[in-house]
């Protein structure tokens, strides 16, 4: 009886520890859910120690590694929160990446001190590959709509350094999004990138 109880206890503890990495129970507007969702945009060795910015724009978890994770979806925040990390367009970036994001949201030219990288391992809800700020497929350039799966992005200090890359987002190779604009950046697909492509 004692052995059975001990084995059951260990199994319960193991399962509890394993489930910690999965979606937490509760409203998607909670700090707990947002921290889980947004930090999952990067590999755990980055996301687990990153600061997290909530939907309110305030820091809901202080980090220790110089990275910040947040929702990258510019669409209106739903009353009950984002349905998933994919819908939230969760993104993790360093301070230079934050400069790029803020400039993009404000419609001004990013001024970076160096290149930066951003992780989006949950993908995004879709954009026109040629025009910044187009978030509905119906409004996009024909044949240029891409709803991305997991990827890494290179945000260059000087967009001219990536202008020789292709803009073909179906090749599987790194490609340029928003080519010829101040927001040109390199999309680097990883496994599962085309999971939302029909």
Number of separate strands: 10
Topology pattern, helix = H, strand = E: HHHEEEHEHEEEEEE
**What is the domain tally?**
1
Mean pLDDT: 91
Structural class: alpha+beta
- Tally of alpha and pi helices: 5
Strand order of the largest sheet: 2-1-3-4-5-8-10-9
Shape: globular
Distance between the termini: 55 Å
Please bin the fraction of helical residues. 10-25%
Poorly predicted residue ranges: 1-20
* CA gyration radius, whole angstroms: 19 Å
Could you walk me through the main structural features you see in this protein, from its secondary elements to its overall organization?
The protein contains 5 helices and 10 strands, in the order H-H-H-E-E-E-H-E-H-E-E-E-E-E-E. The protein is an alpha+beta fold. It has helices at 2-19, 31-39, 44-47, 85-88, 95-106, and strands at residues 51-53, 59-61, 68-71, 90-93, 116-120, 127-128, 145-146, 151-155, 175-177, 185-189. It has one domain (2-189). Strands 2-1-3-4-5-8-10-9 form an 8-stranded mixed sheet, with helices on both faces. A two-stranded antiparallel ribbon has the order 6-7.
Short description:
With 198 residues, this protein is an alpha+beta fold. It is built from 5 helices and 10 strands; from the N terminus they run H-H-H-E-E-E-H-E-H-E-E-E-E-E-E. Strand 1 (51-53) and strand 2 form a beta hairpin.
Index terms:
198 residues; alpha+beta; 8-stranded mixed sheet; 5 helices; 10 strands
